[in-house]
Amino acid sequence: MGDCSLGVGVTDAGTDEDLFLPLDVDRHSERLVFVHATDSDLAKRLRLSALDFALSDLRLMPLADFVSDWPAPRTATLAYLFHLPFAGSSLLATCLERVGLRVLRDPAILDALFQGDRAQGPASFDAHTAERQATLGALAELARGRPAVIRCAGYHPAMVERLVAAPGFHRAMFLFCDWRDFVCQVLKDDKRQNDMLRLADIRGAMITGTRPVEAAEAAAWFWLDSCRNVCRLIEGGHTVAGVDAGRLFADPPAVAMKIATLLGVETAERGDAGGTWDAIRLRHAKTGAPYDEPRRRSDLAQAQSCFADTLAALAPRMAAEGSADIRTRLRSVELT
């Protein structure tokens, strides 16, 4: 990687532009890692980090130059997609691109600059305000001429309040699912269970007054914690729209078009030219394997049956934690 000055080619909206994309911060050399990428490059990746691009494509810039060249956003242009893991965010991202939005999938630099103090050290968050503002300024530029949605990683709920409070915030969507479905998705995989338990331990999780010791308890805590963070934003008067995963899977085009309309993009419903929507509906968004809504419903029912005893044991604790009220609050701002 060589040092490189900022030089961003801007073309007409709708073309495969050469986009300046900040990826990470190298603290050892005090330089920004970035790449020039096209929309086609972005669509191929589930996450935007330095590890997801070829080393030969990466460039470096002194952080001082980055902060100087990119002021904080001056207008409300940044739209965020917050989501629970395993709730269909990859499907929704693909659908949003289909209706004309630019989607930035999980920019790793936001994790580095906006996640919790415990991960970065107690002085880290306040120490890098200028870098955060410059990063948001660069991301806001990507929404100029073509509205963009930033999909944020599902494991960093602490980012939610900080991003909404930061310069440039326009509105947010929150993709959620039933707590039972989320717990089942975690229990289906050993790695997910271990990751959830580790996360609960790091964050000092509590559910009905006790620390989670089983993966199901940790998953239930995570659902509660993530949804409560979003509910606080709603109660604070921030513009957050709820997106129910069940409705998304049932009719992906309808949900994508509603979000596009919400963000001011005119997208008249058209015929399924070239079978694009069918290709999206009938394939798994991450793997590309054949998958459809009846299969998904069958899988969910089978998982709930398999883990029925665990879910039954959790149900009174989730009720005591107010899970029904949380779901009602999220549904009160749901896209209709």
Structure overview:
The chain is α/β, with parallel strands linked by helices and 336 residues long. The protein has two domains: 1-69 and 106-131, no CATH class; 74-101 and 147-331, Rossmann fold (3-Layer(aba) Sandwich), CATH 3.40.50. Helix content is 48%, strand content 14%. The chain has 17 helices and eight strands. The protein has helices at residues 39-43, 63-69, 89-98, 108-114, 117-120, 124-127, 129-141, 158-165, 179-187, 190-202, 215-235, 245-250, 252-262, 276-281, 293-306, 308-320, 323-331, and strands at residues 19-26, 31-37, 58-62, 78-83, 102-105, 148-151, 169-176, 240-244. It has a five-stranded parallel β-sheet, with helices on both faces. It has a three-stranded antiparallel β-sheet with strand order 1-2-3. The longest helix is centred in the last third of the chain and has 21 residues, at 215-235. 38% of the residues are buried.
Question: Helix and strand layout, with pairings?
Answer:
Blueprint: E1 19-26, E2 31-37, H1 39-43, E3 58-62, H2 63-69, E4 78-83, H3 89-98, E5 102-105, H4 108-114, H5 117-120, H6 124-127, H7 129-141, E6 148-151, H8 158-165, E7 169-176, H9 179-187, H10 190-202, H11 215-235, E8 240-244, H12 245-250, H13 252-262, H14 276-281, H15 293-306, H16 308-320, H17 323-331
